Amino acid sequence: MAKLTLDGVTKVFDDGGDDIVAVDSADVDIDDGEFLVLVGPSGCGKSTTLRMIAGLETVSTGEIRLGETVINDQPPTARNIAMVFQSYALYPHMTVRQNMSFGLEESTDMPKSEITQTVEDAAEMLGIADLLDRKPGELSGGQQQRVALGRAIVRDPEVFLMDEPLSNLDAKLRSQMRTELQRLQEDLGVTTVYVTHDQTEAMTMGDKIAILNDGKLQQVATPIEAYHQPANRFVAGFIGEPSMNFFEMERNGDSLVGEWFEYPLSSETAAELDDAERVTLGVRPEDVELVASGSGDHEFRTVVDVVEPMGNENNVYLRFAGGDESKPMEERETFVATLSGMRTIEDGQEVIARIPEEAIHLFDAETGTALR
Ligand code: ATP
């Protein structure tokens, strides 16, 4: 087992004379046995990062190290790394047993009896021991995914790379496989890099989460840190569903003034603004409260625009009622509050929204960097 290090890793593609920087100076340490989830919007460089680690793509500059060894120039087969793809990539004409043993037969000199034993042990671990003589076409999606995992496990790799391995499964199976995969990774203790688009997978599966945007790593942190202390506005908006609400504000002394409301700050919070004049105020939907009658500083008159019932909770979209009263309701800014599903609330109802100061996030409007 080993620690995986990306040190200034950059990938530039030449697209007919134009340089495309797919990954820009990525620095990440993934400790021995750690589970890192790599997330970001489409085209941000996730797959390219994974492919460079696997050796399927060259590194333009920077170093990839496994333990103390620089592996940049090692061919994929020489790297003790196993990759699991979204498409499973099983051989249709081979049985499950053959799919799982093929790699060992081709690239190791492991005796046949030991290969048989290794495959059977992995199949047992994955609950597919009774499927060993079937072909992929005779398996469900979840079973095929287990075979793909089994093929990676039998190689006893130092690193697992997984590229959206659960995205072809239906929602129920996906959540079951999510926990199974986590347990498996913990039991095996293999250093893992896992790419996903899925918010739940990103928040629940990894020890650490790395958020990538436009080829640049935005933050590497525990999921809880990234959620509660996002490094910048991008991370704040990307992590969490529904997304954080953002309001563009101008600073006026110890107060923030926006189009729809004014938000006074305590002197301690105002001190954290440094000399930022334009500030983005962020608040998570679950931190917005609805109160009976407005009396405090951080309470605002709003009208319920739409209620989106989610079962256990409601997403309530609100429009500001105060501010420039000459503006028609449909042109007013909306923001969302997540409330318990037990609360009855209806479209068009007037409510007071409270945005508590202890819950707000502040970002420099120019750079997006978190100020608090
Ligand atoms: P998705 O989530 O949609 O799979 P991604 O985050 O995995 O996206 P990459 O596939 O790594 O993104 O692509 C990153 C950028 O590099 C994109 O702009 C893509 O168009 C570009 N790119 C990827 N492969 C090549 C290539 N072989 N030649 C030129 N450009 C490429």
TrEMBL record:
Location of the ABC transporter domain: 4-239
Complex and partners: The complex is composed of two ATP-binding proteins (XacJ and XacK), two transmembrane proteins (XacH and XacI) and a solute-binding protein (XacG).
This enzyme's EC code(s): 7.5.2.13
GO BP terms, alphabetized: carbohydrate transport
PROSITE patterns according to UniProt: ABC_TRANSPORTER_1 (PS00211), ABC_TRANSPORTER_2 (PS50893)
The name this protein goes by in its record: ABC-type D-xylose/L-arabinose transporter
Domain of life of the organism encoding this protein: Archaea
Family from the record: Belongs to the ABC transporter superfamily. Carbohydrate uptake transporter-1 (CUT1) (TC 3.A.1.1) family.
Gene Ontology terms, MF aspect: ABC-type transporter activity; ATP binding; ATP hydrolysis activity
Enzyme class: translocase
Catalytic activity: D-xylose(out) + ATP + H2O = D-xylose(in) + ADP + phosphate + H(+); L-arabinose(out) + ATP + H2O = L-arabinose(in) + ADP + phosphate + H(+)
SUPFAM superfamilies membership: MOP-like, P-loop containing nucleoside triphosphate hydrolases
Organism: Haladaptatus paucihalophilus DX253
Keyword field: ATP-binding, Nucleotide-binding, Transport
UniProt topology in membrane: Peripheral membrane protein
Cellular compartment(s): Cell membrane
Role: Part of the ABC transporter complex XacGHIJK involved in the uptake of xylose and arabinose. Responsible for energy coupling to the transport system.
Keyword Disulfide bond: no
InterPro entries linked to this entry: AAA+_ATPase, ABC_transporter-like_ATP-bd, ABC_transporter-like_CS, ABC_transpr_MalK-like, ABC_transpr_MalK/UgpC-like, Mo/tungstate-bd_C_term_dom, NA-bd_OB-fold, P-loop_NTPase
Gene3D superfamilies named in the record: 2.40.50.100, Nucleic acid-binding proteins (2.40.50.140), P-loop containing nucleotide triphosphate hydrolases (3.40.50.300)
GO cellular component labels: ATP-binding cassette (ABC) transporter complex, substrate-binding subunit-containing
